[in-house]
Write a structure and sequence with these properties.
mainly alpha
């Protein structure tokens, strides 16, 4: 199913950005511009995933 494949790709992106955010936060601090950039990107990806999975539950 196409939605499942897209959801899996999104999960991989979420995990990657989360790892980058954690590493950057540990190295540069939680208020560092790069850490905050990753945090915002992570929020967007999680929101996209939530929309995708909630939409797919309505269409199943």
């Amino acid at each position: 199913m196409i939605i499942q494949k897209e959801a899996n790709e999104l999960i991989n992106q979420i995990n990657h950005i989360r790892d980058l955010m954690i590493l950057t936060g540990l190295r540069n601090g939680l208020n560092d511009d790069q850490t905050l950039k990753y945090s915002k990107e992570l929020d967007k990806l999680i929101h996209k995933y939530q929309l995708m999975t909630s939409f797919s539950s309505y269409t199943s």
